[in-house]
Amino acid sequence: MDTERLWEILYKERNTATLQELPRNFCAEVREYLKRLEEERREAERGEAERGETERGEAERGNADERRRGLVEDELRNARMKVEDIIRRRVGKIVKLASSGVSVRTPSKGMLEEERAIFEGVKSHVEAGRERIFALISGAGGGEEEVKRGGKKREAAEVASPEVASPDPPARDKKGKKDEEESEEESNEEFQVVRALEDLPTFMGIDGRIYKVKKEDVLTLPKTNAEILCNRGVAVRLRGRGRVERKGETETKTEK
């Protein structure tokens, strides 16, 4: 690595929108180059200190060492500036790519190992933040207090309503009533009765229904949603089952 190679890399980064492919040992090469310049500068400084101005010839050699030190310092300063500019431009491209919202895998070429870690970290945080915002929007009506209190309850609601395709209605055949009864029994096994231990944000179950759950509400939920809430410690499983309709929303009470 030398100053010309650094300038070539910087020129390409400035004039292309995509990342150029760097040598896998780029960081090691740059480190060794800067280290070499540091050693040359220290050597020139030692030469100046040792020679002093005892004799004319020595003084001239001292001036040569001083000029050499100045040149090395200029090269070292310029090299560091080029490296910083290269890193800044590449990180900017990586962040832009990771936050673009486009489903993209980590590019196999163009990124150093350390840059892949930056890409994955930014992409993960952006996706998580986007999901939280969508969850708040879909929860509608919570207001600022809902946002502040989100924490554990919002996380439980988000996990309790995974994105799954709506199940297709069971097809009917000539067996008629018998198949319908079997289907109903099978459907009942897919639901569980739970009691809410605290207020939860509005969420959509995997059955496509919207659930508004308050503390101490007893309701029948799809098994998947019920297990998630119970595992989160925000609901407990009960026995018994009975449906009632209220305010256009389905709620389920235990039979007494």
Q: Compute the gyration radius: what is it?
A: 34 Å
Low confidence ranges: 140-150, 161-167, 183-187, 241-256
What would the CATH topology of the largest domain be? Methane Monooxygenase Hydroxylase, Chain G, domain 1
CATH class of the largest domain: Mainly Alpha
Secondary-structure element string: HHHHHHHEEEEHEEE
Shape: rod-shaped
Enumerate the strands of the largest sheet in spatial order, edge to edge or round the barrel.
4-1-5
Q: Return the CATH architecture of the largest domain.
A: Up-down Bundle
The mean pLDDT is 73
Percentage of residues in helical conformation: 55-70%
**Distance N terminus to C terminus?**
81 Å
Instruction: Describe the largest sheet.
Output: 3 strands, antiparallel
Task: Characterise the protein shown here.
The chain is an alpha+beta fold and 256 residues long. It folds into two domains: 3-123, Methane Monooxygenase Hydroxylase, Chain G, domain 1 (Up-down Bundle); 178-252, Ribosomal Protein L9, domain 1, CATH 3.40.5. The chain has helices spanning 3-15, 26-51, 56-98, 113-139, 143-148, 151-160, 177-188, 223-232; strands at residues 191-196, 200-204, 210-213, 218-222, 235-238, 243-246, 249-252. The strands form three sheets. A three-stranded antiparallel beta sheet has the order 4-1-5, with helices on one face. A hairpin with a 2-residue loop joins strand 6 (243-246) and strand 7 (249-252). Helix 6 packs antiparallel against helix 8. The protein starts with a helix and ends with a strand. The relative contact order is 0.08. Mean pLDDT is 73; it is low at 140-150, 161-167, 183-187 and 241-256.
